[in-house]
Please model this.
Amino acid sequence: AFDKTAKMIGLPYPGGPALSKLAENGDPERFKLPRPMLHSGDFMFSFSGLKTAVLTTAMKLADVKQPSETMVISDTDKADLAASFQAAIVETLVKKALAACLQQDHKRLVVAGGVGANKLLREQLVKAARKRGVEVYFPELSLCTDNGAMIAFAGAMQLAENPALLDARDYGMVTRPRCELATRV
Model:
């Protein structure tokens, strides 16, 4: 969500770090962006509606009818939009993650993936978790990478262990959502 939103407002790839840095100079309350599925009663979330809200706002700011990579948005507007987007993501992730911990009676939370590098998320999650008696663990910043890269690495490791997979038409793998990285095919 961070990378896609960053691209929408004209920031370079990787967008997550660029958006977070820009957000430091913005007003997180200027744009009233949705908090996706915050009150859904479950622990699911989707940021597609939030990304659409950012795109719609960016188009209004650029005074265009169709999205394009050449939309011109002022630096102040970009910073405020980045801060508002980041605030919506962080609030959603913090509330859902801690609700899951409390419902499952877990006292530890591990954050993984690229978003784990987000400074505001780290601050807000630790602060809210401490109030609820939950410990939060983050990898070192150098290990907070995109989940897609981690999945590709896991696949490469499996291929290295069994090169014959390349010869199989079906690649000899069963697709399993929620497959643990340590699971072998």
The CA atoms of residues 95 and 168 lie 45 Å apart. The beta strands are 108-110, 135-137.
